[in-house]
Amino acid sequence: MCIFCKIVNGEIPNNTVLENDEFIAFEDIHPQSKIHTIVIPKVHVESFAQVSAETMSNITPFIQEVTKKLNVDKDGYRLITNIGSNGGQEVPHLHFHILAGQRVGRLVSK
Ligand code: 5GP
Ligand code: ZN
After folding, report:
1. Model-level pTM?
2. pLDDT by position in tens, the chain (length 110)
3. Right CATH number for 3-94 from 3.30.428.10, 3.90.1640.10, 3.40.30.10, 3.30.70.240?
4. In testing the pocket of ligand 1, which one of 3, 48, 85, 110 has its CB within 8 Å of the most ligand atoms?
């Protein structure tokens, strides 16, 4: 089972920002900006390359709600999803990074 599926089922603790039946948003363990939140579908989907149009449609208002809860919707944020090895994806479960709380001046690199 992947690390984010373990977060979904409670095996790995997390600091939850917002949750509904389909999605969960939680704080990144190694934040790369003052606010760094991860948003995932609860069902395992490997990456954006495999996601359905329906899930993408549903996750959009959820992410928007998360940015309101974080109070970053007005000042802005960077929304990133990494895909595969050249994309720099380390966790093989679709996730969106919300980077905020400061001017995000560079791409996320590792
Ligand atoms: P990727 O490089 O796959 O796009 O991003 C994976 C992200 O997941 C990284 O920013 C990393 O810090 C975060 N991450 C990895 N393991 C954990 C964990 O166990 N808990 C939390 N909260 N974040 C994690
Ligand atoms: Zn998973």
Report:
1. 0.96
2. 999 999 999 999 999 999 999 999 999 999 999 999 999 999 999 999 999 999 999 999 999 999 999 999 999 999 999 999 999 999 999 999 999 999 998 665 55
3. 3.30.428.10
4. 3
